[in-house]
Amino acid sequence: MSTSVQVEPVMERRYEGVGRCKCSFWFAVAHDILGVFIMMVGVFGGLVIHDLFIYAGAIIIFLSLIWWVFWYSGNIDVPPEELEDDVGLIKLKNRGLSRVVRRVSDRLSSRIRNSFRRSGPSIKADPAVNNRPSNAGSEVPLSTIYDATMASSSKELVRETLSI
């Protein structure tokens, strides 16, 4: 039982001039003009702090690259045929191979995920080999026993070892 999906052709609006992201374009141009102006004041202004103006202009021009990236990435056109829906619609061209690869990937990842959920990473040590106790991977609650009579009568430090 299969359902067919019909996609109607969508007429895209043609943008002329600077494209869709006009604000990013004009912010980038404004930063470039301001950066060049500040840099030229530093070069030709004859000021004592000319190096500050040169560096500030260069930094402003560098920061304008952010706006240029926004403008460029906002104007990338992707045809509607190449877009794939996120809710599971598969491209009609690659339906057979894509479906097989997706099933194999889902099965493999679910097996790996379920193997960790069932058993969990456990540490099992052989006491004869490692000289470690058999409960090395288990959680053991520790408690401190404080004897008030011993602590009050003795003024010297007593060190005791704790073995688990």
Provide a concise account of the structure shown.
The protein contains five helices and no strands.
Kindly describe this structure:
The protein is mostly helical. Helix content is 50%, strand content 0%.
Helices and strands in order:
Layout: H1 22-44, H2 50-74, H3 95-118, H4 127-130, H5 148-153
Helix pairs in contact: 1-2
Radius of gyration: 35 Å
Question: What number is the mean pLDDT?
Answer: 75
Report the end-to-end length measured between terminal Cα atoms.
Answer: 62 Å
Report the biggest beta sheet as strand number plus sense, adding barrel if it closes: none
What characteristic shape results from the CA principal axes? flat
For this structure, the quaternary state is single chain
Unreliable runs: none
Structural descriptors:
about 50% helix; about 160 residues; mainly alpha; 5 helices
